[in-house]
Amino acid sequence: MTKKNEVSEALDNVITKRDDFLGKAKDFIAAVEILLVAATGLKALLDKNGGAQHE
Questions:
Q1: What is the pLDDT of residue 54?
Q2: Is 48 helix (H, G, I), strand (E, B) or coil?
Q3: What is the sign, positive or negative, of the torsion defined by CA atoms of 14, 16, 17, 23?
Q4: Verdict on whether the full-model pTM lies above 0.90
Q5: Average pLDDT of the chain to the nearest whole number
Q6: 12: nearest Cα among 29, 20, 26
Q7: What is the rounded CA–CA span in Å between residue 55 and residue 33?
Q8: Are 51 and 45 in contact (CB under 8 A)?
Q9: 32-51 tens-digit pLDDT
């Protein structure tokens, strides 16, 4: 019976760690998306104002 409990606890730990990892991965992806949007917007703003001439 203890082996079943150990296996069950191990599976619960793996599932918990997976959920934590997925949460962190989704947060990281969201942060990268925000940075990409900001960089794209800044590039468009610089191009609109002739920023390429000042590089």
A1: 55
A2: helix
A3: positive
A4: no
A5: 89
A6: 20
A7: 25
A8: yes
A9: 999 999 999 999 999 888 75
C-alpha distance from residue 30 to each of 9, 13, 26 (Å) = 32, 26, 6
Distance CA 14, CA 8 (A): 10
φ, ψ for residue 50 (rounded to 5)?
75, 30
Q: How is residue 23 written in tokens?
A: 């949460």
Task: Compute the residue count for the chain.
Answer: 55
Q: And the tokens for 46?
A: 């610089």
Closest listed residue to residue 8, CA positions, set 18, 22, 16, 23: 16
Q: What is the pLDDT of residues 2-25, one digit of tens each?
A: 888 899 999 999 999 999 999 999
Q: How many CB atoms lie within 10 A of CB 13?
A: 10
